[in-house]
Backbone:
């Protein structure tokens, strides 16, 4: 089962590196973005290790059960509820970003809000499924989409248009201390492990998740690729002119012998699907945590009636997402998402710390 | 069971509420194949924009299905010109197939100022990988050429530039995103290939080099070929060697180039350019077996090295750097980008070029 852990971890890493983070890092490219790629995976790796190892001590239990068992209600409720809401916000942010991109490049005649409403409906339907269904569908979509994305990355690396001199010029700025926003952006790439708070229920506890070192290694490589390929294509200064760095970079690719010469249309579709999977996971986790905080446990056999509380939470958050999407324009969206990442990182550390403590002591008699 | 049917029919009804517009049928669209920007004579409407639009056919036939409609308009900005052009045609303009942007030679100074390029970068439907070229005498005349071999309008230009059809060492390719990079990047200057219409065909054998503000010079066809090797890392080449004793031509199909900038002596910085070419003989006035091949290789090397030096010195005299030596210098030295750049600006004018060419002949062709 532990391969599923790698699926949702890498989906989260991909979404962050190609959708949410590039703008932050491009803005900070002279101000410590590169060093943050080294520090971020280190912090992220430690958090992932601590979280998975402490959760593996609880056989088949999620964060709500653990907190209910070992903490007084006054502490367990805010912990679980907070973790759930954070998961929801991460997914909602990704959808708003994606809706803006799709309405700008793929379907300009449709308003982003209409798109967002459709996206949110589909995600709600996906998120209220059982944990196992969510994991299985993640696997299917992962196998279809991720190889294509990897092909695009490799194409970028070996393209004739990729100018490695620009990349080397950037190395002058390696030892600049990173700002909080670029550091938190680099660390947030690894935030996918939070999904384990729910999926730990489905993982058999007698087996530990192996090859954990892969997570920081792959994350580091993805972050470096997603930062340096656009710079190699658009130049050290020119890259700043683009808003959605990766869409513009893929727009510069031409793969003559692929189905469609202009790969950006394929890329946008993959992006849409991967964002869907990401939000499905995060909202599923969010719904389970929020309902779990109020002692609603997942049923043995899911039906419409048993899933109703989860659906209600998802719909509520969905409406919130659409309203937020309608109020944001591009500049405020980017500001909001880097602000969000800045406060999310310490909160993540707090949750991991709490779980590590819980795995050793119990506060409740 | 009944309930499922009820839910399904409700779902079907909801589908009816989806908006049906937002998409125009393919026969209500004009596909713009090429965009041309010229300078007009009117001072208040400086942009003369031309669009080459394909007329769709059901069956593709070379030389017959490449009919097109050329529409042009003068306006104070590109956007305005396009808006006004929409009143001249009966279908929706679709830019998603526009694979080439041709700039009129008169316009070459303006294209480097950002507001002209801006329109292309800002529009979502102009592809970043579109080709760019300079039209001589004007972009409109380039667009107005109809070659007999085309399958659809503009096809022959696309084939020439992506080296999918003809593989000519004279044709230098430039992309829109690359041009934008070169306009902004320090130590990497822009260039554009020049298209000259000749009746019902094109001649693309020159390249224009720019500094960051204006067109500096047009390179001759012979210089363009060397330029193509250095800038676009183009692999095909042929070497003509002529001495009193022998005249022969080599066809090169593999070129490896690398260079390093040696600044160990402050007053005399040197650029070592190492070129390795592998090819075979194509034409010779004498039998190739009279002397060892290394003799001919040395002869060819001298000629090629002289041509490289000539081009590099010419670019140096113009103070342009399309090959990216400046960027390479900044990339290989690490003491702050600003300091490197000021150092490079003093180095480049006094840089000496030492091309070290190695030619390897692997066969003399079908005869001795």
Residues:
């Amino acid at each position: 089962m532990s391969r599923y852990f790698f699926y949702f971890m890498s989906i989260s890493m991909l979404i962050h590196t190609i959708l949410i983070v590039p703008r932050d890092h491009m803005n900070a490219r002279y101000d410590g973005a590169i060093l943050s790629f080294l520090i971020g995976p280190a912090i992220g790796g430690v958090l992932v290790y601590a979280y998975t190892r402490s959760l593996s001590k609880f056989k088949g239990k999620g964060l709500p059960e653990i907190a209910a068992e070992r903490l007084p209600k006054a502490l367990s409720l805010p912990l679980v509820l907070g973790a759930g809401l954070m998961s929801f916000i991460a997914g909602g942010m990704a959808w708003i970003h994606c809706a803006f991109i799709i309405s700008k490049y793929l379907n300009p005649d449709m308003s982003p809000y209409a798109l967002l409403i459709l996206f949110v409906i589909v995600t709600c339907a996906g998120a209220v499924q059982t944990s196992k269904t969510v994991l299985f569908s993640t696997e299917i979509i992962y196998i279809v989409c991720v190889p294509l994305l990897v092909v695009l990355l490799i194409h970028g690396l070996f393209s004739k248009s990729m100018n490695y001199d620009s990349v080397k010029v950037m190395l002058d700025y390696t030892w600049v201390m990173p700002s909080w926003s670029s550091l938190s952006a680099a660390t947030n790439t690894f935030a996918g492990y939070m999904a384990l708070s729910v999926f730990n229920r489905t993982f058999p506890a007698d087996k530990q998740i192996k090859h954990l070192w892969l997570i920081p290694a792959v994350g580091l490589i993805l972050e470096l690729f997603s930062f340096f390929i656009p710079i190699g294509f658009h130049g050290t200064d020119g890259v700043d002119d683009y808003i959605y760095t990766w869409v513009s970079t893929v727009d510069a690719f031409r793969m003559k012998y692929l189905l469609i010469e202009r790969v950006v249309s394929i890329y946008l579709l993959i992006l849409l699907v991967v964002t869907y999977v990401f939000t499905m996971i995060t909202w599923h986790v969010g719904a389970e945590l929020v309902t779990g905080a109020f002692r609603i446990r997942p049923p043995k056999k899911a039906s419409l009636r048993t899933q109703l509380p989860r659906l209600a939470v998802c719909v509520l958050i969905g409406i919130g997402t659409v309203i937020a999407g309608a109020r944001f324009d591009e500049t405020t969206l980017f500001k909001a998402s880097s602000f969000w990442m800045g406060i999310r990182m310490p909160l993540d550390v707090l949750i991991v710390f709490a779980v590590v403590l819980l795995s050793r002591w119990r506060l409740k008699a | 069971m009944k309930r499922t049917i009820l839910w399904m029919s409700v779902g079907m009804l909801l589908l009816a509420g989806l908006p049906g517009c937002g998409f125009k049928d393919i026969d209500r669209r004009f596909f713009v194949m090429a965009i041309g920007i010229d300078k007009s004579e009117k001072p208040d409407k400086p942009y003369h924009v031309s669009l080459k639009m394909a007329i769709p056919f059901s069956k593709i036939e070379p030389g017959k299905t490449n009919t097109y409609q050329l529409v042009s308009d003068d306006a104070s900005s590109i956007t305005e010109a396009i808006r006004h052009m929409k009143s001249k045609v009966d279908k929706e303009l679709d830019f998603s197939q526009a694979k080439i942007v041709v700039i009129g030679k008169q316009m070459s100074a303006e294209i480097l100022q950002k507001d002209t390029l801006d329109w292309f970068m800002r529009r979502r439907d102009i592809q970043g990988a579109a080709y760019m070229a300079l039209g001589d005498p004007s972009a409109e005349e380039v667009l107005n050429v109809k070659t007999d071999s085309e399958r659809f309008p503009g096809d022959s230009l696309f084939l020439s530039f992506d080296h999918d059809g003809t593989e000519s060492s004279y044709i230098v390719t430039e992309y829109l995103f690359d041009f934008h990079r070169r306009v902004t990047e320090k130590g990497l200057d822009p260039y554009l290939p020049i298209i000259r219409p000749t009746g019902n065909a094109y001649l693309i054998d020159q390249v224009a080099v720019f500094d960051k503000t204006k067109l500096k010079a047009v390179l001759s066809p012979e210089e363009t070929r060397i330029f193509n090797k250095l800038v676009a890392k183009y692999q095909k080449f042929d070497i003509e060697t002529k001495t009193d004793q022998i005249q022969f031509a080599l066809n090169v199909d593999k070129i490896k180039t690398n260079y390093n900038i040696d600044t160990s002596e402050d007053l005399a910085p040197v650029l070592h350019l190492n070129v390795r070419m592998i090819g075979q003989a194509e034409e010779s006035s004498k039998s190739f077996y009279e002397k060892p091949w290394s003799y001919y290789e040395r002869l060819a090397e001298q000629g090629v090295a002289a041509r490289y030096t000539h081009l590099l010195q010419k670019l140096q005299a113009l103070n342009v750097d399309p090959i990216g030596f400046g960027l390479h210098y900044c990339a290989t030295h690490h003491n702050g980008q600003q300091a490197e750049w000021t150092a490079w600006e003093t180095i480049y004018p006094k840089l000496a070029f030492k091309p070290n060419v190695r030619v390897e002949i692997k066969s003399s062709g079908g005869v001795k």
